[in-house]
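Sequence in, structure out. Go.
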Amino acid sequence: MALLKVTNVSKVFGGLKAVSDFDVAIEKGELVGLIGPNGAGKTTAFNLLTGVYEPTTGEIEFDGKSMIGLKPYQITQRGMARTFQNIRLFAELSVLDNVKIAYHFHVKYGILEAVFRMGRYHKEEAELEAKAIALLKIFKLDDKKDEIAKNLPYGEQRRLEIARALAAQPKLLLLDEPAAGMNPQETQELMKMIKWIRQEFDLTILLIEHDMSLVMNVCERIYVLEYGSIIAQGIPEEIKNNPRVIEAYLGEEVE
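Output:
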């Protein structure tokens, strides 16, 4: 059974069909890419998967259960976490607090225990902080745990956003153009990081990305979206040589 199964999903905005008959199946442990030219509907597809939008038609199943009608936070609690094309950190909070917030999806203490700081509160908060610092150390951000998130350099903000997504302890991680705004060296480092976190955290990853070299070197399978519909799928070599994909990219060389 696929970890993520999307069947005949469509989304209509005021008569405009942004996504049409969208079908995707991702097995546990896979690293899959979703590519397409600007305006193809990639981010809309991510928003459908994560509950930002509800499909007009179709079904989305994750880990054997329907996700239709669930709020984004409920989908995150079920084990699906994402990053965004435009970085969305809690800009005025510290690096450490950004990660701790994501870990709070899994706390067991109640509201009263939190308000009055009693019962399980202190023990669990100490455990969360230790976990958050350990995760920041993996991403080489532990020495900046007390800095305000917005003051980090761009590449470090990207790493922090990925670390925060991992703190939600997902089964499926969705990365929305993580290389956007990065220079070539940062992109190379990101490529290695994506491969590493998939193995280290036993993750399944779905990646949207414009940087074709990153997609071709990282992903095992690739779906291609054009005008909201899947026009091709396959291994990188097949996608690279697919005439319809080449046409969709207006003759751009896919390397």
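Check: The first strand starts at residue 4 and ends at 13. The longest helix spans residues 121-138.
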